[in-house]
Write a structure and sequence with these properties.
Rossmann fold, binds S-adenosyl-L-homocysteine, binds iron/sulfur cluster, four-stranded parallel beta sheet, pyruvate-formate lyase- activating enzyme, about 425 residues, OB fold (Dihydrolipoamide Acetyltransferase, E2P)
């Protein structure tokens, strides 16, 4: 979501003759977009601001700005922590950027933090980071208030984007040659709930996107388990353009921990959703991935082991993992007496990562002998034998390497999978 915001910010800046540079010494404006999901990412933002002080010393005309989740939370405090900062703007102030830029250019220091909904402005272009993959946000914010999570405080309540604006953005991407469209949201499957029109749902959005002519595929992340409707599962099955890929974070395999996290499902219900999806898409042709947190406050060893057994029981193809990071203002962040020792959290994270690796290898094994449709994203030439090895991504999000012509970059091809390592598959070109 932050990357997608950065693409929009870059697009807006380009309307003011700002061009991107890799060299901070040439810049007139240094802007950092920040994430605060874990303490480490927030700390990194402040250390980057600290490092940028030297550029302001060399050129006092340089402007320094910070936006995103850390800005949204810290507001004016940022000026106190770093006197070189000229601009602080929140997650809902992106479309005010033209005004904000004018103000800082005239020497003002500005902190713009909105707590209410933003009005989208589609007049600006978007400078996308990748050549073939386009991120398209469809819903912002979150209403769930999981006890560990800072997102509802940094991104506010759920706001769905206008249906037609999304369709137009996807059409533009397809016309520009983007081959993979990823619909983004903290909870994509809540799309439309705030729009008072029962026909505006993620399922219907996918159906409409699938009607767009062109050679592309679409995926969506992240889904909240109990917001996955039967109609959504059905819609995914209706078109080859929609990836059979569900990212459904479970967070913990233990019911008591799920309750303490304020997740609205238990292990059995999560399992039923996974089962329903797997039964709809036969022949192991669906990918289900998850997120898990190790060392949530009060988590016992037995409860942690329930997470490991869940990965196995639900045959999850891959999981993002993290050690619990206390976040200020969140409910669990106040349960200091239940915090798990850092050393134990690290140990659990390592065990969780090992379990995840095992699950990934099992999932890779299922791909052996299969023909996967992949999008070729780039290539490398082997220095010794000169052979071109293409790197690509399959519908199941796995990286696939195979020998082929570099002209295939940017196209979909069929690859038969012959072998694998932990993090990628190897195959041969079929067409
Ligand atoms: N909306 C999604 C998750 C978005 S946040 C969902 O409900 O599942 C992305 C991931 O960051 C979460 O799935 C969670 O695993 C992780 N995360 C969020 N807050 C965290 C914290 N305080 N400590 C560690 N991981 C956290
Ligand atoms: Fe955070 Fe996701 Fe929970 Fe929302 S649903 S509070 S984004 S973990």
């Amino acid at each position: 979501m932050n990357k997608s915001d950065s693409e929009r910010i870059l697009g807006m800046l380009s309307h003011f003759d700002y061009q991107q540079t890799e060299n901070p010494q040439e810049a007139n404006l240094l802007l950092i977009n920040t994430c605060s999901i874990r303490q480490l990412s927030a700390d990194k933002a402040f250390s980057t601001l600290g490092r940028w002080g030297k550029y302001k010393k060399l050129n006092p005309e340089i402007k320094i700005g910070i936006c995103g989740c850390v800005a949204q939370i810290e507001k004016e405090n940022i000026f106190k922590r770093n006197k070189n900062v000229d601009l602080v703007f929140g997650t809902r102030n992106i479309y005010e950027l033209p005004d904000l830029i004018k103000k800082i250019e005239s020497g003002e220091k500005i902190c713009a933090i909105k707590d209410n909904a933003i009005k989208e402005n589609t007049d600006f272009c978007i400078i996308r980071d990748k050549s073939f993959n386009a991120w398209v946000p469809i819903i912002e914010g979150c209403n769930n208030f999981c006890t560990y999570c800072i997102v509802p405080y940094t991104r506010g309540r759920e706001r769905s984007r206008d249906f037609n604006n999304i369709i137009n953005e996807v059409k533009t991407c397809v016309n520009q040659g983007f081959k993979e469209i990823t619909l983004l949201g903290q909870n994509v499957d809540s799309y439309g709930k705030d729009l008072n029109d029962k026909n505006i749902t993620l399922a219907n959005l996918l159906r409409e996107i699938a009607k767009i002519e062109g050679d592309f595929r679409v995926r969506f992340v992240t889904s909240y388990p109990t917001d996955i409707t039967d109609d959504l599962i059905k819609a995914v099955g209706e078109s080859d353009k929609i990836c059979k890929y569900f990212h459904i974070p479970m967070q913990s395999g233990n019911d008591e921990i799920l309750k303490a996290m304020n997740r609205r499902y238990n292990r059995r219900q999560y399992g039923e959703i996974v089962k329903k999806i797997r039964e709809t898409f036969k022949d192991n042709c669906v990918t289900i991935t998850s997120d898990f947190i190790a060392g949530f406050p009060g988590e016992t060893n037995e409860q942690f082991y329930d997470t490991l057994s869940a990965i196995e029981e639900f045959k999850l193809d891959y999981s993002n993992t993290a050690a619990y990071s206390p976040r200020e203002n969140t409910i669990a962040g106040k349960w200091i007496d239940k915090f798990i020792d850092e050393k134990i959290k690290k140990e659990r994270l390592k065990i969780l990562n090992d379990k995840n690796k095992e699950a990934v290898i099992n999932s890779n094994k299922k791909c052996l002998g299969k023909i996967l449709k992949v999008l070729v994203e780039g290539f490398k030439q082997n220095e010794e034998n000169g052979k071109i090895i293409l790197n690509s991504r399959a519908e199941n999000n796995k990286i696939v390497h195979f020998e082929g012509d570099k002209n295939l970059v940017g196209s979909f091809v069929d690859v038969k999978i012959n072998s694998y390592s932990t993090w990628c598959l190897f195959g041969e070109l079929m067409n």
